[in-house]
Amino acid sequence: MTQGPSDADDPAPTAPILEAHNLHKHFGGAVAVDDVSLEVRPGEVHAVVGENGAGKSTFMRMLAGILVPNEGDVVMDGTRLEPGSPQEAIDAGISLVHQELSLIPEMTVAENIVLGAMPTRGGFIRRRALKATAQAALDEIGVGVDLDEPVSRLSVALRQFVEIARAVAREPRVLILDEPTATLTPAETDYLLDMLQRLADRGLAILYISHRIPEIFTICDTVSVLRDGELVGTVGIDDTSPTDIVDMMVGRELKQELQADHESNPQGVVLRARDVRAPGVNGIDLDVRAGEIVGIGGLVGAGRTEFVRAMLGADPRNAGTVQLTVDGETRLINSYGQAVAAGVGYVPEERRADGLALTMTVRDNIALPNRKALSSPLGVLKRGQIVTYAKDLADDVGLRPPRIELEAGAYSGGNQQKIVVAKWLGRAPALFVLDEPTRGVDVGAKAEIHRLVRSLAEQGTAVLVISSDLPELLELSDTIHVVRDGQIVGTLPRDVADESSVMALASGGTSMIGV
Amino acid sequence: MSDRRARIAAYFTRQYDTKEGTAQDNVESLFGEGLVFHLTGDRTMGRHALVALCQLLRRTRHDRVTTVTELTEDGDQVSFVLVIRGTDPATQHEVAVSTRTTYRFEDDQVVEVWQDDPAQVEQAVRAAGVRL
Amino acid sequence: MSEDTSTQATVDTVASDPPPGQAPELEQQETTALQWIAERGIFLFTALLIVIAAIFVDGFASLVNITDVFNRAAPIGIVAAGMTFVVISANYLDLSVVAQVATSAVVLIAVNNSAGLVPAIGVAIAIAIVYGLVNGVAVGVFKANAVIVTLATTFIGIGILRWQSGGSIYFAGEDSLIRAFGTAKLGPFPLSMIVFVGVSLALSYVLTRTTFGFVIKAFGSNPEATRLAGINTAWVVIGAFMLSALGAMIGGFVLAAFSQTAVSSMSGGYDFEALAAIVIGGTSVFGGKGSVLRTLLGVIFVSVLSNIMVLSGLGFGVQQMAIGALIVAAVSLDALARKAATS
């Protein structure tokens, strides 16, 4: 449906410049990349996509000579490269822009750009030549930065561009970028994508690692999808669609799960909040019924998180009454402790900062909210019971690998979020509140978290979801309340809500705009 | 010169009313690569952001009809009033909304845009997930 | 229901089908040698040190010498065991143990001399509770910095003690129970050594086996996550300082019994010596990680090292240098291991 801008200049059948032949890499018994072959042609922007752990970075590092493949060859211009020699790869014209910035903050822009290829004469640095080389590289990518500025004073985006200038200064013929837009704003991303397009138009071959599908459809000509270390396929951008790519990334079965609907069967009111006020929250009423998923939408800063935290007592509340009705018993909630005791589970917005004790084991994190049920009346922990309890919950949420004795900090974002969810699942909360449940989480984990949320609602839990991710909100919620300026400005039932209506309410304007 | 009027009108019809072609192709048929779309204050957005916004607006269920009126040309600048009629998805009310828009052309492509209610556009861009 | 399980099954097969043996979503797969040493080094080093000392140092491997090492280590060891809770709760340390130990020792001997043992212990307990509450409330409720708060309570406590005692030295009565305790033995083991090991084991049990210890650890690892798990974190901090006060009180008793005298200046340096033992034992100064048994080992390690140096004729200055170097090594290891774990 969406087409790359370069589809006009159809990739001419030129010979590939860089070829990977059956690359295979394993670490101990763990296979990271399995029999992957692909080729890139001059002027082509070739995306390599996949979920976290799919083997993208390992693959790229083999191309750049950083890792030695166990099997297979890297061929540049028909010549096989010495495996595991970064210098030979650079000399052959392969330049890798790392995901982690590798600039030296105290050195100037110019020095950083020519680092590793310093022009010297008799051991002295030729400053004029140095600057000329650096300037040429910056001109090449069209970025204006003061050459004498220390890198430490540059914004993250400019550092990223300097990093690219450094790669370009080596006059590469193949440029490899590993998630270059991870730290950029959309405007900066636009700029970067334009820049890459220009470089490609001049005949540079670009390998672009990303998991951001829109970017790929903006600049790439070809997409290769990796899953579990294997190449699922390579397709031309005109022959595919974003949904097809997601299919390939996660596998078709999971895709169906992503689109599954849940049976909504709301019952009695569990949460009743009236006139909740707090800094940034100007009087919000909210009801959530058992078995119902209520979504809260709105722009960042609209007061959604502030509302939920004040409502639950996690932050001070200026006014308002909040009641929780569980098993026919209604209790007033005036402090966070009361909320938890009454049956609230809360997955906070910042999971690393607020949700997990990263230096504790998964087991202890999961047991924490439910420690009382897992100990004797005198407070002695029942350790065997805790292990079984944590194991069961880790399985329920699909933690992978399900090793509960590992520290929570050892897991990736998606798994960490599953641990936070598991913490509360064991208490069978009557009201489950999730703030940005899948932010920064990969596609597979996202689908599983959605599945969990839906199954909770089907079992009669009242669920409240806050999300900035509109498709997520629309997919999960039975009802969406839109918050703006600390108030609910509109309520949209599932059959009426769409992206536009939520957005219109959230932004305070009408979606009837023409641009 | 009246070619511009036809192109602008066709753009809005295809982009929103009939939803023909892709959002990106439509945008690229009218707007140049180095587009500067003025928002509030010093903020601007580029062509990629515009595409993202158009994609979001096109995903809505609506019955809108867009008309280009009061078009005037002054050198490389074209100014017109855009009238949108239809049901507002948020309120389900029948509305008619008008916005004055000015385009600056360069090499037959729009390279700069001003609108009289940039705040609304800006909020919508943010809602589309574009950070400004 | 059958439908439900079938969908779940498909999800599981898809998602739990990583390449064989691979842990695709783990950021950190194996513990590095560095982390291994940071985590288990103290056990190895203590054992090594003892073996080396037994072989090479004359006079080390005698029952008299070893019980003497324990006897001398007992007061600081008990203080350190209690203070471990403050360190694990990420509140750095309890400087006020200096005032608490001296107060406890002076009260025990002075009140015992004038009113008997039971009132003496009663007063000491009351004072310990006050210390625990004041430190705990200031840090836990008012969120004041623990170092500053306990520095202040040290000044206040030592000030009150000097004022009340006039700087006098109190001697335990000729036939008081305290004197008897100081010299009592159970078989070959001095009573103070048994109290030291007993208190350490009891506090270790509290830390590892009770919800209270569990929550202190969680709080030290991430206070906000602990609060959001529905835990009243003010009580957690108060509890940590209470246990520290308990350790300081018992440490004061043992010190008074050991030296048969008490004076306001007798416990100078206990704050940092206790912290040194805790840190060398491998409890993290960042909180959230550590154990009382590690502290016990840290105390033993430092004491054995000092003993070896004394037996080898090395001076106090060299001992201090060695302990300083050990602290740097322990803290650096901890920081490096953390860095390796999070990068």
Shape of chain C: globular
How would you classify the helix and strand content of chain B by structural class? alpha+beta
Helical stretch count of chain C? 14
- Could you give the order of strands across the largest sheet of chain C? 1-4
* Amount of beta strand of chain B: 35-45%
List the helices and strands and how they pair.
The complex is a heterotrimer of chains A (515), B (132) and C (343).
Chain A: E1 18-27, E2 30-40, E3 45-49, H1 56-63, E4 71-76, E5 79-80, H2 86-92, E6 94-97, H3 109-114, E7 120-121, E8 124-125, H4 127-141, H5 156-169, E9 174-178, H6 186-201, E10 205-209, H7 213-219, E11 222-227, E12 230-236, H8 242-250, H9 252-259, E13 269-278, E14 281-289, E15 293-298, H10 304-312, E16 319-326, E17 329-332, H11 336-342, E18 344-347, H12 351-355, H13 362-367, H14 383-396, H15 413-425, E19 431-435, H16 443-458, E20 462-466, H17 470-476, E21 479-484, E22 487-493, H18 499-507
Parallel strand pairs in A: 3-10, 3-11, 6-9, 9-10, 15-20, 15-21, 18-19, 19-20
Antiparallel strand pairs in A: 1-2, 1-4, 4-5, 7-8, 11-12, 13-14, 13-16, 16-17, 21-22
Chain B: H1 2-17, H2 23-30, E1 31-38, E2 44-45, H3 47-58, E3 65-74, E4 77-87, E5 94-106, E6 109-115, H4 118-127
Parallel strand pairs in B: 1-6
Antiparallel strand pairs in B: 1-2, 3-4, 4-5, 5-6
Chain C: H1 2-15, H2 33-56, H3 63-88, H4 97-115, H5 117-141, H6 146-165, E1 170-171, H7 177-183, E2 185-186, E3 189-190, H8 191-209, H9 211-221, H10 223-228, H11 233-259, E4 261-262, H12 270-280, H13 292-311, H14 316-342
Antiparallel strand pairs in C: 1-4, 2-3
Helix pairs in contact in C: 2-13, 2-14, 3-8, 3-11, 3-12, 3-13, 4-5, 4-6, 4-11, 5-6, 5-11, 7-11, 8-9, 8-11, 8-13, 9-11, 12-13, 13-14
